[in-house]
Each structure stands twice: as C-alpha cells, then as structure tokens.
Description:
There is one protein chain. The chain has a single domain (25-136), classed as Roll (Nuclear Transport Factor 2, Chain: A), CATH 3.10.450.50. A four-stranded antiparallel beta sheet has the order 1-2-3-4. The longest helix has 18 residues, at 2-19. With 158 residues, it is an alpha+beta fold. The protein has six helices and four strands. The relative contact order is 0.15. Helix 4 (44-56) packs antiparallel against helix 5 and helix 5 (60-67) packs across helix 6. A hairpin with a 2-residue loop joins strand 3 and strand 4. The chain has helices at residues 2-19, 22-25, 39-42, 44-56, 60-67, 73-86; strands spanning 92-99, 106-114, 120-130, 133-136. 39% of the residues lie in helices and 20% in strands.
Amino acid sequence: MQRRRLLAVAAALVVASGCSSQDDEAPPTVSAPSSSASASSDGARDAVEAYVQALNSRNAAGLISVGGVEDEGWSRQEAERILADRGGRGWKIKDVRVQHDMGPDVGSARLLAEGKKGKPLQDTFTVTREKGTWHLTVFTDQPAEPGKESAATDKPRS
Length: 158
C-alpha cells in the first residue's frame, strides 16, 4: 500500500512538472516556440522581427509601418525618438514569445534581444491584427481624433 502511494505521488510530480510553463523551465532561445501555435504562422512574430530590423537600420518608415500608424509629423517625430533611444545597435533576437491572450486579433509579444556590445533589450508589446496585418503598439503619442477628447488622468473634482 505504501509503495503504491509513493508511485502515485512520483507520477503526479512527473505530470505536474510537464505542465509547468516553458518560461519557468528553460532560458530563452532563438528557436523557442511561441506560446500560441498560430502566432508564428499568423505574422505577429514577423511584426516583432520587422521592429528589430527597423531599429537596426534606423528606419523611421519601417517603425511607422510596423506600428500601424499614419506617416505624419507626430509619428515621424516619435519614430526618431525611438531610434535615438534604441536604434543602430545591431540587435539580435534571442527570444520572441507571442500569446493571443486577448483574442485571435490581439495579444502580447515579449522580445528579448542583445546588442552588438552585449547590452540586453527586453520589451513587451501589445500586438494587434488589422485587416490581416499585425502591428506592434510602439507609438504612444498618437493625437486624438478630431472632435474627440483624450481621456483625462486627473482626479475627478467633486
């Protein structure tokens, strides 16, 4: 009886360890599978790779394209700020993990990369699919649509 119980506990531990997430088990690798089976085939990972290519080549138009925003003055200015901060460092992707945790057209992507000088880049993006094309949410200064107010972050007055 004691032996059966010991075998049952051992089997449960083996099953439980097989169910733990890959994030906790292994260090990131270039070929690590994404968290969603469809992520690599649907283009979300390609969008992250295009982002890294745009950074490496200091390509503002590439950032604007992968960001899915209009090529306007504000977006060019923000792209230049992003490139000044992270561009031209020869980033090599170490790992990209995409999860479609908010539905089939919205998810999150985690990027781990390393620059020529060994400096790490770690970032998380919201990925969205619009009209079949995946984009990263990298632009934060997008102006409000004409006639609409942006949301306030001040405390409400009573």
